[in-house]
């Protein structure tokens, strides 16, 4: 990010002739190992050239303009699927701001949570066990709640040594703006993964064949590990932002914390998008051929990401051995 800001570069600009001499070059991540590559036309097909190899081959120094741009391109490919020369770089690598926007609903959810946390700081009974937290609509329309929020803001202004209640309101609005992205990802990513895991669990109950049960159990285990890892990110953010006053007191540090989790979750959601779209579109399936094909694709998405390395190497070796001794065989 600093390289782009120092040079006032906000577009994909490269000076070495190699980047134009080979034809219309684009940059993306390799389908095999997700390394950043340059893709160029080659006859009727394309050739993929790893950026690090390209940099070494043409003597592009790390601290040169092109060297710094290649670093930015690699970072940018965490947030966009493809870059062409001349394209704008995503704002995540330039300013830290997201290049996408949450909905107004998610802004409201985040704002309501922060207000409720400040209310609970003044009156813990607001979040007592069995008590339902007030909705955004109630916080806006209920005169008693509005007065309580105003009182909490006034007390927060004193505690934080801010000039006015308006300063607190602005701080809450800014923080809610950051947390709105987390709420959008909770809806659009976490809940979709949870739904997929539930559907796989439901399918596994109908597998009578022992080999299929083993296969489904492996997929369920990997899907469960994936869900735990993703859910842990939301748990971290929720824990960090549970204390409203502390959240506002350390607004800058918490903003960076939220953005780090936001970007990790967003990058992950992009990778998950194709497989989640398949499960979103599927009817509640039985164990037919189309379901097994979907399970196969799900396994091959999950295994390299969530299977312990030793198991993944072992499974790959088993696949090679079976390919030598048998015709076509599915290896899980």
Characteristic terms for this protein:
single chain, 332 residues, mainly alpha, four-stranded antiparallel β-sheet, 14 helices, 66% helix
Q: Explain this structure to me?
A:
- The protein has three domains: 93 residues, no CATH class; 65 residues, no CATH class; 143 residues, no CATH class.
- 66% of the residues lie in helices and 6% in strands.
- The chain is built from 14 helices and four strands.
- A four-stranded antiparallel β-sheet has the order 3-2-1-4.
- The longest helix is centred in the middle third of the chain and has 40 residues.
- Please state how the strands of the largest beta sheet are arranged side by side: 3-2-1-4
Low-confidence stretches: 1-7, 312-332
Profile the largest sheet.
4 strands, antiparallel
Task: Quote the average pLDDT.
Answer: 85
Name the helicity range.
55-70%
CA radius of gyration = 25 Å
First-residue to last-residue Cα separation: 41 Å
Number of beta strands = 4
N-to-C SSE string, H for helix and E for strand: HHEEEHHEHHHHHHHHHH
Percentage beta strand: 5-15%
């Amino acid at each position: 990010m600093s390289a782009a800001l120092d040079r006032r570069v906000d577009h994909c600009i490269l000076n070495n002739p190699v980047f134009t001499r080979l034809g219309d070059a684009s940059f993306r991540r390799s389908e095999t190992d997700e390394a950043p590559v340059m893709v160029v036309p080659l006859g009727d097909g394309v050739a993929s050239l790893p950026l690090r190899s390209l940099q070494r081959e043409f003597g592009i120094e790390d601290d040169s303009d092109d060297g710094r741009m290649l670093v930015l391109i690699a970072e940018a490919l965490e947030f966009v699927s493809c870059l062409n020369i001349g394209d704008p770089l995503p704002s995540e690598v330039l300013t830290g701001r997201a290049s996408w926007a949450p909905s107004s609903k998610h802004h409201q959810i985040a704002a309501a949570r922060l207000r409720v946390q400040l209310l609970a700081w003044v009156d813990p009974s607001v979040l007592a066990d069995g008590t339902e937290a007030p909705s955004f609509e109630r916080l806006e329309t209920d005169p008693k709640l509005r007065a309580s929020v105003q009182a909490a803001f006034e007390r927060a202004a004193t505690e934080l040594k801010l000039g006015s209640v308006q300063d607190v309101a602005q701080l809450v609005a800014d923080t809610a703006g950051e947390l709105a992205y987390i709420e959008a990802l909770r809806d659009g990513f976490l809940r979709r993964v949870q739904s997929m895991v539930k559907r796989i669990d439901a399918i596994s109950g109908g597998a009578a064949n022992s080999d299929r049960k083993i296969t489904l159990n492996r997929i369920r285990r990997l899907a469960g590990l994936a869900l735990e890892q993703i859910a842990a990110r939301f748990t971290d953010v929720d824990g960090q932002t549970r204390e409203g006053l502390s959240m506002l007191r350390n607004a800058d540090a918490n903003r960076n914390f939220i953005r780090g989790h936001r970007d990790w979750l967003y990058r992950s959601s992009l990778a998950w998008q194709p497989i989640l779209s398949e499960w979103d579109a599927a009817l509640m399936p039985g164990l037919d051929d189309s379901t097994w094909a979907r399970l196969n694709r799900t396994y091959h998405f999950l295994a390299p990401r969530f299977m312990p390395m030793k198991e993944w190497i072992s499974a790959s070796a088993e696949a090679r051995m079976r390919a030598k001794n048998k015709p076509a065989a599915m290896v899980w």
